[in-house]
What does this fold into?
Amino acid sequence: MVIFICLLIGLLSAMLGSIVGFGGGVILVPILLILHSTTPLFEWADASTIVGISLIIMIFTALSSTYAYAKSERIDYKSGLYFIAGSLPGGVLGAWLNQFVDTDMFSLFLGIFMLLIFTMFLFKKAPNQVKDDMNLDTSQKVVREVKIGDAVYRYSFSPFIAVAIAFTVGMLSGFFGIGGGSLMVPAMIILFRFPPHIATATSMFMILALSIVSSGTHIALGHIQWIYVWAFVPGAWFGGILGAKINQQLSSKAVEYLLRAVVLLIGLRLIWQGLF
It folds into this structure.
């Protein structure tokens, strides 16, 4: 029974995570925390174990999603490498810090964190469409230009700011086990004006590298329940591919609205769980 539930959770969380570029951990971790507090079947799922499992599962989710997004040419590899460079050392630090917090407090922290992400989207800026008279400040910035359908978008960012933000994202990812996309996608859209489809695809590319490094730290600390990991893997693999395909059929606004709804509902549920 537990194995079947894990398979289903892996499929649904990877599918939703791939659609919005979160990697699935932002769905999987809260669901396991809720099950831990509501059914004896998941007594084994304490905070450190959940985070470790989530990060390993996200390797498979991110790998399948990255493959699908690469085929559709939605990944901005150059930008992604800057984000990876900052996120990897942060991921190791966050994974090490996770062992010092109990499960109820972890639920509260994660719930508050998700509400902060939801708030970030209230201040979203639209991506820049290229115009003939448009001039971007290119001094000390990385400037990128992509085409989605008939529209061409241009965006830029400071590599130093990108690395600093990615380090913070990596640390929170290693601590919460959520892949980093839940912060990286809003940051790319709000701060750097990435088009949502490029942001989600590039996020999955970054999550692949970050999950490998962060999960390695949790393995070294002995946080992994391997029997349950293998129950999640098949669902995570197919869910990641399915989510990437669904993402390509949705408009940018639909992707963003789905992302907002998921973050808000789960964040409120975790805060309730952490307090009561």
About this structure: The longest strand covers residues 142-148. Strands lie at 142-148, 151-157.
